[in-house]
């Protein structure tokens, strides 16, 4: 792990400066705030089309399997502005799921065989419907996942969240892109690492990731540079050793996720002239063994307005699930509606199929 710790200090210092000043693409009027502009860049770049690469290994189109997870993006409001964020979330965003849409989510879960409600954002806990969604989903005996940035657990007005999450047995999946403070703060903002460690300690005190406890705390690693994630098991062992010895904190599993060439990470690649290099790396590392386990095969994504997508990344590119010319809304959704439905793909999908693969549940090839 020596190279992992020593790499890219010049970039880290630059990223620290950028993160301190970072605003969302929408706030700055960046052309990449438009999903269609992002998709245009992804599809027009001189690379092998993902659909052509996929066709070499499986019959197209790519079909959905049994739906097991409903992932809802409840909005783009966040207390952080991270350099890699594919949602372009931040304190200046106001998109937020309404009570009516949240109720449609609950109505679907009540009639569905889906086992898991996966809540993301933004900082999902900042949405006014978050606690209702958790309570009602747990009443339906659904597993609930909170994709948490950790620092929100220490923010004014949210300090009782750890107790709430523990009380309702919510599984926490939390981003901690490095066990080294300088690397983490470079990607997520100055002071974020220290607050994250404090928040993990609080969760540990409540029973998360403790022996004989059902309260799960998984951490998420994503690279701070142009590289792909290293082996998940090897890196997990390093994380556990370092975080325990340095800070006395514990977690269950580490999930490694590839940075997707979408939104702010796409903007960063283009500004640094590294886009072609990164896409070529993803293509060269295409791994057909990942295809059966792609998260879009068993997950559906819902945006803050209630519209349906094959995954959260497709959501950010506005690659909506549709019936003819009509977009499918959560109020119309049934398990049967999605059975054996073709999945929409584009060149960003190389991010999920490179190396050991990438998904909201970590690597795809164990």
From TrEMBL:
Listed cofactors: [4Fe-4S] cluster
Ranges of residues in domain Arsenosugar biosynthesis radical SAM protein ArsS-like C-terminal: 228-363
Entries under Gene3D superfamilies matching the protein: Aldolase class I (3.20.20.70)
Superkingdom field: Bacteria
Record keyword S-adenosyl-L-methionine present: yes
Radical SAM core domain mapped to chain residues: 72-208
Keyword line: Iron, Iron-sulfur, Metal-binding, S-adenosyl-L-methionine
Molecular function terms from GO: catalytic activity; iron-sulfur cluster binding; metal ion binding
Pfam families: DUF3641, Radical_SAM
InterPro entries named among the record's database cross-references: Aldolase_TIM, ArsS-like_C, rSAM, rSAM_ArsS-like, rSAM_sf
Protein name per Swiss-Prot or TrEMBL: Molybdenum cofactor biosynthesis protein A
Organism: Neorhodopirellula pilleata
Upper classification of the organism: Bacteria, Pseudomonadati, Planctomycetota, Planctomycetia, Pirellulales
């Amino acid at each position: 792990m020596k190279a992992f710790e020593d790499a890219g200090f010049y970039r880290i210092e630059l990223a620290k400066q950028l993160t301190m000043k970072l605003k969302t693409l929408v706030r700055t009027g960046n052309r990449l705030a438009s999903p269609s502009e992002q998709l245009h860049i992804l599809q027009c770049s001189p690379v092998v089309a993902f659909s052509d690469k996929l066709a070499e290994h499986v019959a197209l189109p790519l079909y959905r399997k049994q739906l097991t997870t409903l992932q809802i993006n409840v909005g783009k409001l966040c207390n952080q502005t991270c350099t890699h964020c594919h949602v372009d979330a931040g304190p200046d965003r106001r998109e937020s799921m309404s009570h009516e849409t949240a109720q449609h989510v609950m109505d679907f879960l009540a009639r569905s065989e889906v086992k898991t409600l996966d809540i993301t954002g933004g900082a999902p806990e900042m949405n006014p419907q978050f606690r209702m969604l958790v309570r009602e989903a747990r009443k339906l005996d659904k597993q609930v996942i909170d994709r948490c940035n950790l620092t929100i657990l220490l923010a004014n007005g949210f300090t009782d969240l750890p107790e709430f999450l523990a009380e309702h047995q919510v599984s926490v999946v939390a981003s901690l892109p490095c066990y080294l403070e300088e690397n983490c703060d470079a990607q997520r903002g100055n002071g974020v690492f220290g607050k994250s460690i404090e928040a993990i300690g609080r969760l540990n005190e409540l029973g998360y990731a403790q022996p004989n406890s059902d309260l799960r705390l998984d951490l998420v690693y994503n690279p701070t540079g142009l590289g792909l994630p290293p082996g998940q098991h090897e890196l997990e062992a390093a994380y556990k050793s370092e975080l325990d010895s340095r800070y006395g904190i514990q977690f269950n599993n580490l999930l490694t996720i590839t940075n997707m060439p979408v939104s702010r990470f796409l903007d960063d690649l283009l500004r640094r002239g590294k886009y072609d290099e990164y896409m070529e790396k993803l293509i060269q590392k295409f791994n057909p063994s990942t295809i059966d386990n792609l998260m879009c095969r068993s997950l559906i994504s819902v945006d803050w307005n209630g519209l349906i997508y094959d995954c959260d990344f497709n959501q950010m590119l506005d690659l909506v699930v549709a019936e003819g010319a009509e977009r499918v809304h959560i109020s119309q959704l049934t398990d049967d509606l999605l059975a054996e439905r073709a999945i929409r793909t584009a060149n960003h999908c190389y991010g999920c199929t490179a190396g050991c693969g990438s998904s909201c549940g970590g690597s795809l090839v164990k």
